[in-house]
Amino acid sequence: MGKTTKLPGGHRVAVRDIKDAIAAERREMADLLDDLPPEAWEVPSLCAGWRVREVAAHMSLGFRYSRSAVAAELLRARGSLHRMTDRCARKDAERHSTTRLASFLRENAHHAWTPPVGGFVSALGHDVVHGLDITVALDHARRVPEDRLRVLLTAVTPRTCRFFGADLSGVRLAADDLNWSFGSGSTVSGAAQDLLLAAYGRTLPAGRLSGDASHRFVAAPATG
């Protein structure tokens, strides 16, 4: 089986399998982005303040910026990671064509980048969740493969929910398309990939989740 990594609950998964899943996710998202019409790139994503274009730019930041470049950007942002990633996403979204933004993912499918914490499981989560930030916002039919979802759902813990700003107090998330649940309280049900978004602190379009507490995870309607 080779080298493995431990998930919550004692589950272990082969690192090689996670790396393969990351590569497949990046290639599939690159193909999807290549097929988007120009107007889709301007649609607001599930990431507050970012269009599809900014999310796509952010997804490849780790491949394109050296450590020294990241350090310099952090300095400009006065040490705020949030300000840094926001500035870079906006800058890169304007600098690069949509074709190039898609190709960054394809060309770096096997890049070994990982977030500061969490290793390759977190890298998979980064790619899958930001991909969903795009596809759910566009009401695209893409479904994340079950094996990738299971790894990420198994990795959901109270600590990760706090990290991503997800308030699941008094709520039990229960997938209706595979055997998974998390938490306790009023049941909120829906597709596993939508519940993953809720666990990552996202609010979703109306109608994707059900249950008495589902309104807590629904985005406010656009105004203006």
Structure, described:
With 224 residues, the protein is of the alpha+beta class. 48% of the residues lie in helices and 9% in strands. Strands 4-3-5-6 form a four-stranded mixed beta sheet. A two-stranded antiparallel sheet has the order 1-2. Helix 2 (52-59) packs parallel to helix 6 (98-107) and helix 2 packs antiparallel against helix 7 (119-135).
The count of β-strands is 6
Categorize the overall geometry.
Answer: globular
How many angstroms separate the termini?
A: 55 Å
- Lateral arrangement of strands in the main beta sheet: 4-3-5-6
Strand content: 5-15%
Largest sheet: 4 strands, mixed
Task: Spell out the blueprint of helices and strands.
Blueprint: E1 4-6, E2 12-14, H1 15-34, H2 52-59, H3 61-64, H4 67-76, H5 81-95, H6 98-107, H7 119-135, H8 146-154, H9 158-163, E3 171-175, E4 181-183, E5 186-190, H10 192-199, E6 209-210
Helix pairs in contact: 1-6, 1-7, 2-5, 2-6, 2-7, 4-5, 7-8
